[in-house]
Amino acid sequence: MDIVATLDDMGKPAWITLMVLAFIIFWPLGLAILFYLFWSGRMGCGKRRDWGKADLKRWSHYAPTRGTGNRAFDEYRQETLRRLEDEADEFRSFLERLREAKDKAEFDQFMTERKKGSDAGPGAVPSTT
To answer: CB under 8 Å to 40, separation ≥6 — which residues?
Structure first.
């Protein structure tokens, strides 16, 4: 949607203004916008928030796309942006490995507790401590 992209370019204040105006005009519309903002992660909260390439794209319009005329600076800027993108990719993969390790540890703990419960006999209830 073109309106959504325009409001995203303007940032959070534009979304908040739209939501307040919608509440004033017709409160269910304001409520719908509020839910949309939380669901989509546009307010920076919730589980749908994913710091990824979309965020780099959002901030890229702050950096000039044309050269500044200073070749050394332009090369430095390009190298720095490339390095930051590489570090962001590495960090995302680290977080994914960390989540997988946590999930595996929780599953292993569950299986250990389950096995302890089945060793106690068919009528035994596994302890939760």
So the answer is: 48
Residue 89: what residue type?
A: D
The whole-angstrom separation of Cα 81 and Cα 87 is 10
Q: Is the pLDDT of residue 4 over 70?
A: yes
Query: Is residue 98 a contact partner of residue 107, using CB atoms and an 8 Å limit?
Result: no
In order of 77, 79, 124, the CA distances from 67 in angstroms are 10, 14, 73
pLDDT at 83: 96
Extents of the domains making up the chain: 1-49, 50-119
On whether the CB atoms of residues 115 and 124 are closer than 8 A, the answer is: no
Residue 65, classed as helix, strand or coil, is: coil
The whole-angstrom separation of Cα 100 and Cα 107 is: 10
